[in-house]
Structure formats: structure tokens, C-alpha cells
Write a structure and sequence with these properties.
single chain, about 220 residues, alpha+beta, four-stranded antiparallel beta sheet, 14 strands, globular
Length: about 220
């Protein structure tokens, strides 16, 4: 079993970055009934997901004391995306092994400028001072601690716009975006569809089949 330590990093750092170019497609699958989610929204309540970098002390304010505690951070927010719909569906629904069609939405966001992402794929995680197992572990306290470290140490990692990592379910590229790039994203309303849209049925069924998942209407 690989040991995943919390920060600080070990050894001499050689972080690697990847770039998203202006106009590149970022696919988002979101539930509009939760956190007022939309094509370009970032969530400032957390930490919840793998690389949430929300703080758990002032100036963040506790909005739920029970475990897991949640905080509203006035300065930090995250959004999750991918460059393949299969990655989105595997990450969102992989644990339950069932794709829930309603009320979920698909949208495409595109950067207006080049976005710089810390690359944790392959040997990139070790170059950043951790291990590739960080992108697969279920221990969110560890992954979130590293997200905060990457974000708070621009001298070592640069003023990154987010993180790219191998998805925990199918190893396709997952993108975590920090609020630094929120105003640099654009969305065409024509690139937004209900996941239950009939003309997407064959595509979703193919993804479900290849990932050993079922579909719930």
C-alpha cells in the first residue's frame, strides 16, 4: 500500500504543468438543483470534493458543523470538468455505478486565455512532492490539504489556475479549476443539454456499457 503523506512535500520539487488553450472545450456535468450550479458556476462551499482548496478557518465561515463540516470561503471556489464526457460521468456516478439522467445537465465551458494546470498525471505527482496515489485515494482530508498547499505556494508551483489529474474511476483527465480563472471562462448557451436528451441516448448508453454502469431515467 502506498503511503500518502500530508504536506509539506518531500524532496526537490520539479512540478510539471499542462495548458488549456483559448477555445478548448471543458465539459461539465452538473445538477442544477444543488449549489445553484450552472455552466460557469464555481462552488465556494466546501471542502467537499477531491481537490477543493477551501479554508476551514477564518475568513471562511462554517455553514454546517456536522461531519463533514462545510465552510463558505469568501475568496476560494472550485469547479470540476473534463475533456471527455465519459470522464465526467465516471467521476460523478462511478461510486454508485448508475448514471442518473434527471435533473443532470451537460455544458461546455471554454477559456478565453491559456489556463495553466498543475499536472499530477504520471510522474507529475512525484515531481510536485507527493505521489500519484493522491489522485485515487478516498481520503479527502489528504487530497484537500494538498490542494491548499499547491494553491498557497506560488513560489514553488506558480499561480496555477487549477489541477489536472487522472480520474479515480477510469484514469481519464480530470480538471479542477480554481476561482482564479472563473472570469476567464465563457459559455455558449447552445452548448448546454439535459443529460436525458433523447439524441444523447446512444452516447450515454455506450459510455455506461464501457464502464459497467447502469442508467436510471
Amino acid at each position: 500500500m502506498v503511503r500518502i503523506s500530508k504536506p509539506p512535500p518531500r524532496g526537490a520539487l520539479e512540478p510539471r504543468c499542462a495548458e488549456l488553450q483559448p477555445g478548448d472545450a471543458l465539459i461539465r456535468v452538473y445538477n442544477p438543483m444543488k449549489y445553484s450550479a450552472g455552466p460557469l458556476t464555481f462552488r465556494n462551499i466546501g471542502p467537499l470534493s477531491r481537490f477543493d482548496h477551501h479554508r476551514t478557518k477564518a475568513p471562511a465561515v462554517c455553514v454546517r458543523a456536522r461531519r463533514p463540516a462545510l465552510f463558505q470561503d469568501p475568496d476560494r471556489a472550485t469547479a470540476y470538468a473534463a475533456q471527455a464526457l465519459s470522464c465526467c460521468l465516471a467521476e460523478v456516478f462511478g461510486d454508485r455505478r448508475s448514471i442518473v439522467l434527471r435533473p443532470w445537465m451537460i455544458a461546455v465551458a471554454r477559456p478565453r486565455r491559456t489556463l495553466v494546470l498543475l499536472d499530477l498525471r504520471g510522474s507529475g505527482a512525484m515531481g510536485a512532492g507527493t505521489t500519484a496515489a493522491l489522485t485515487k485515494t478516498a481520503n479527502r482530508s489528504v487530497t484537500q490539504a494538498w490542494a491548499r498547499w499547491f494553491y498557497e505556494h506560488p513560489h514553488d508551483y506558480g499561480s496555477i489556475d487549477g489541477i489536472v489529474s487522472g480520474g479515480a474511476h477510469n484514469d481519464e483527465a480530470c480538471v479542477t479549476l480554481f476561482e482564479r480563472c472563473q472570469t476567464d471562462l465563457t459559455h455558449d448557451p447552445r452548448e448546454q443539454w439535459p443529460l436525458a436528451l433523447p439524441r444523447l441516448q446512444l452516447l450515454v448508453e455506450d459510455i455506461a456499457r464501457r464502464h459497467n454502469m447502469s442508467i436510471m431515467p
